[in-house]
Write a structure and sequence with these properties.
The complex is a heterodimer of chains A (309) and B (249). Chain A has 309 residues and is an alpha/beta fold. Chain A has two domains: 3-165, HUPs (Rossmann fold, 3-Layer(aba) Sandwich), CATH 3.40.50.620; 195-308, Rossmann fold (3-Layer(aba) Sandwich), CATH 3.40.50.1220. Chain A has eight helices and 16 strands. In chain A, strand 2, helix 2 (42-48) and strand 3 (54-61) form a beta-alpha-beta unit. Chain B has one domain (2-244): HUPs (Rossmann fold). Chain B is α/β, with parallel strands linked by helices and 249 residues long. The N and C termini of chain B lie far apart (58 Å). In chain B, helix 3 (94-108) packs across helix 4 (127-135). Chain B has helices at 37-51, 69-78, 94-108, 127-135, 188-194, 235-245, and strands spanning 2-6, 9-11, 33-35, 57-64, 82-87, 112-116, 138-149, 152-159, 162-169, 172-176, 199-202, 215-221, 230-232. The chains are: A alpha/beta (309), B alpha/beta (249). The interface between A and B is large, with 92 and 78 residues. The complex binds flavin-adenine dinucleotide and adenosine monophosphate. Flavin-adenine dinucleotide (FAD) sits between chains A (200-202, 227-230, 241-246, 258-260, 262, 264-265, 268, 279-281, 284, 297-299) and B (13, 37, 120, 178).
Chain lengths: 309, 249
């Protein structure tokens, strides 16, 4: 079987769940080694080394990798690419930022956001915001692939494999990190949440969005999501947007409140196990994709629901 | 400086996509086609930079069928100065689009290439990153704010954790996200004027780029349909169903 190199997703402190899900996918293609690129991130490497099925972990540390700028990490992967048949990353914003550079420099066509592995060279990926699925065969000898990780279960963890330090000569004179504004971390992470409550334009203001959705989310131990309209209007931060341009989620329960169900929003949540729509319009398109539909004014229904849970 | 804006003609974002019964792709006959929405935002940003005196010329380019001239004309009507169509018979994969764009950069010498972050037909999200790599230029993707001063560009990027700000040196490739700006409409007089603006037609061979496909699309399938929902009468019934029928709370 061919060997694969998987780029880990992390923030130098903790390994992101996206990595564990992507390992599950990558193991269906072949053997997997994990690359952890960052700075002061030995803990991340040791967490990666606990993932079942992994061959070894490559750890590249240095200031140049601290913020995982695309130019730096792509060049690092190129230094390591030679023995690998596949180069894989979760389709996070970081993976999407880095991997096409790698593909271009290797002169191969990238396969973006696969949701299913049919065989070693044949994959299924959504196109047109998930309104069609493409089954495609890659004719490349080296494959560069990003993984829609919400479609895969988390790999198990167990006994450790070796961590090898990598020396790299990568330098980056083209871009520099300035700052990062992370939104509140007190909330449950959206992509890994078991339950998501999501709000749309109908909330009308940030005050109402917070006042109504937060208690409901707290009751359900849920993450808060939003439609693009709600994010554009400033009700909720950009990283809570669900959809074609936002995050793709597949929780056990997704409650869409005051969201019409545009195809671009559906693209991000229609793989959820159970979908609830709360909407005052009985003809809202979201209903065709929901398991349970409550036709009601959200300003009454949400407090009542919170109280009755 | 000159700004190059690559734009793609795609099925309009409002169209309900229908997969052909024989699995050969999606229905495109009699379907409304438009400029990729992200690319409209890229055009708008380029025009703003020209209006602010940061840029002198905005050149738009599309790789695609003869009809892609329509979206080029739309961006000329928005205010772009000049257009280039690289005429192909079929869809070109992102890697080869990037190679063609690299060759055009070699002729046009822009200092900045502004692209959409993703084409809403193939949802690839690749061309900007690939072009940046092939040119060995700086890269900033998913931009929600762009601030140019001298030879440096400060870009706020929409990332999974929130917003990240980076600085890239010019020349650079930047891909734009939805919240960067709101594109203007082309007014009727400008649509008329756009008809007289220059539009060059080239082919991939002019740039010595081989556009043969690296991937074979075996089949296009409709997504699994969800069955329609049950309407519940009130909040009590909803809670009951979620607890006792779905078992998710
Ligand atoms: C290229 C592109 C990418 C996009 N990407 C995304 C994306 O990633 N995610 C995304 O979400 N959108 C995306 N969009 C936008 C998308 O097309 C829709 O505009 C958006 O999802 C609408 O948000 P909404 O449902 O909150 O608002 P609306 O469509 O305005 O819906 C509001 C809903 O609230 C209901 N309502 C009103 N008042 C009440 C009340 N008191 N109680 C209960 N219900 C009420 C209404 O009946 C309506 O159904 C994208 C668009 C484009 C062009
Ligand atoms: N055929 C094309 N012609 C011109 N520009 C394109 C073409 N394909 C993609 N692009 C540009 O690259 C961006 C990203 O596309 P993609 O990587 O295919 O998702 C688009 O938003 C366009 O700006």
């Amino acid at each position: 079987m061919g060997r694969g190199l998987l780029l880990a997703e992390h923030d130098n402190m903790a390994l992101n769940e996206a990595t564990l899900r992507s390992v599950t996918a990558a193991l269906q293609i072949g053997d997997v080694d994990i690359l952890v690129a960052g700075d002061n991130c030995a803990d991340v490497a040791s967490a990666a080394s606990q993932i079942r099925g992994v061959g070894k972990v490559l750890l590249a540390q240095g200031e140049v990798f601290e913020h995982q700028l695309a130019e730096s990490v792509a060049d690092l992967i190129l230094e390591l690419a030679e023995p690998y048949e596949t180069i894989v990353a979760p389709a996070t914003t970081s993976g999407k930022n880095i991997l096409p550079r790698v593909a271009a420099l290797l002169d191969v066509a990238q396969i973006s956001e696969i949701v299913e592995i049919v065989s070693k060279d044949t994959f299924i990926r959504p196109v047109y915001a998930g309104n069609a699925l493409q089954k495609l065969r890659s004719n490349e000898t080296k494959k560069v692939i990003t993984i829609r990780y919400s479609s895969f279960d988390m790999a198990e963890t167990g006994s450790g494999v070796p961590v090898e330090n990598v020396d790299s000569s990568v330098a980056n004179s083209k871009s520099a990190f300035i700052s990062e504004a992370k939104s509140q971390s007190d909330q449950v992470d959206l992509v890994s949440a078991r339950v998501i409550v999501s709000g749309g334009r109908a909330f009308g203001s940030k005050e109402k969005f917070d006042e109504l959705l937060r208690p409901l989310a707290a009751r359900l131990n849920a993450a808060i999501g939003a439609s693009r309209a709600a994010v554009d209007a400033g009700f909720s931060p950009n990283d809570t947007q669900v959809g074609q341009t936002g995050k793709v989620v597949a929780p056990d329960l997704y409650i869409a409140i005051g969201i019409s169900g545009a195809i671009q929003h559906l693209a991000g949540m229609k793989e959820s196990k159970v979908i609830v729509a709360i909407n005052s319009d009985e003809d809202a398109p979201i209903h065709a994709n929901a398991d349970y539909v409550l036709i009601a004014d959200l300003f009454d229904a949400v407090p009542e629901l919170t109280a009755k849970l | 400086m000159k700004i190059l804006v690559p734009i793609k003609r795609v099925i309009d974002f409002n169209v309900n996509i229908r997969v052909r019964d024989d699995g050969t792709g999606v229905e495109t006959d009699n379907v409304k086609m438009s400029m990729n929405p992200f690319d409209e935002i890229a055009v708008e940003e380029a025009l703003k930079l020209r209006e602010a005196g940061v840029a002198e010329e905005v050149v738009v380019v599309s790789v695609g069928v003869e009809k892609a001239q329509d979206v080029l004309r739309t961006s000329l009507a928005m205010g772009a100065d000049r257009a280039i169509l690289v005429k192909t018979s079929d869809d070109v994969e992102p890697l080869n689009v990037a190679k063609i764009l690299k060759a055009i950069v070699g002729q046009e010498h822009p200092q900045l290439v502004l692209l959409g972050k993703q084409a809403i037909d193939n949802d690839a999200n690749q061309v900007a990153q690939m072009l940046s790599a092939l040119l060995n230029w700086g890269q900033a993707t998913f931009a929600s704010d762009i601030d140019i001063s001298g030879t440096k560009v400060r870009v706020s990027r929409e990332v999974d954790a929130g917003l990240q700000t980076i600085e890239v040196n010019l020349p650079a490739v930047i891909s734009v996200d939805l919240r960067l700006n709101t594109p203007r409409y082309a007014t009727l007089p400008n649509v008329m004027k756009a008809k007289r603006k220059p539009l060059d037609i080239k082919t991939p061979e002019d740039f010595a780029v081989d556009v043969s496909l690296r991937h074979t699309i075996l089949e296009t399938l409709p997504p699994a349909a969800r069955k329609g929902g049950v309407v519940v009468a009130n909040v009590d019934e909803l809670v009951d169903k979620l607890k006792n029928q779905a078992g998710v709370i």
